[in-house]
Amino acid sequence: MNSTTKKKTFYIALISCIFLLFIATFWDLQISETLINYNSWFGTIFQTFGEIPVYFIFVLSGQIALAYAFRKRNDWLFALPLFIGGFSLSLWQTKAYTNEILSYLLTISSNLEHHKAIGLANSDANVGNPSLLLTIMVWLGIYIVVTILAQTWLSRKDEKSLHHLLYVAVFATLAVWFSLQANLALKDFWGRFRPYELSASHKEFTSWLHPNGINGHKSFPSGHTMAGTLMIVFSWFASSQLIRKKLWIFGVAYGVLLGISRIIIGAHFTSDVVFSFFLTAFIIYIVNELYLVLKDKTRPIADLSNP
């Protein structure tokens, strides 16, 4: 993407963000009341499985570290810590994702059993309590499959490509980490009630412009939307420019769909979703630019858009 295209994309994103937040400022509650459907399978499926980019960017980065450590195994003082770190990161993040999806799946099952709306779930805490045996079986099953697929793909890379992927993995991990920290900090500070937490009188509703302080409520901004937008980061790992472009478009579309699903399921207001999407996209942009600058320090920054 050249500098002209970047500027156009930035201005389009900025105008879109301002326009959507303007609408949300006056009609947040009305939009939510119109779209909410706690029985939506669309919203429930995204709620259950949608945060996969947050976890699996870490997992993929860990797998790349494993492959690189194996290639450099003769230098064990470097390879051993890298191997342990990559293994721990990928294994632990797989477990975290397993815990999340099992928790939501058990809640869906419980809701159906008790004739409740399928999408009713507490987004701020684990709502189901899967057994230890089930968690371990699913966790290790997912990890083994992911490891086989990732290592098969990485085994076909030459040393230069693998070195590049390791570099990408570091910045991809940073993008996720910064996005998580910004999202969690704002959630705590804003203390906004979620749509499903409002009483019939809606007396708890506050505009997104009004932070409430730490009170245990975490609607603003949307964590799931942040996670969905991070799908864009997977495009960084592609070797082909065409594939990279397709993954980028898919990532944007995935983030938008996940955001819409959060409004429908009653977990977030429009402003929660819009702000989260554009904030995360901005963080992704900053980290990507930092990557391009540091990748080739001998070239002027203006030329880095054409690597």
UniProtKB/TrEMBL annotation:
It comes from the Bacteria. Keywords: Membrane, Transmembrane, Transmembrane helix. The chain crosses the membrane at residues 12-32, 52-70, 77-94, 132-153, 165-186, 219-238, 247-267, 273-294. Residues 168-288 form the Phosphatidic acid phosphatase type 2/haloperoxidase domain. Pfam families: PAP2. This is Phosphatase PAP2 family protein.
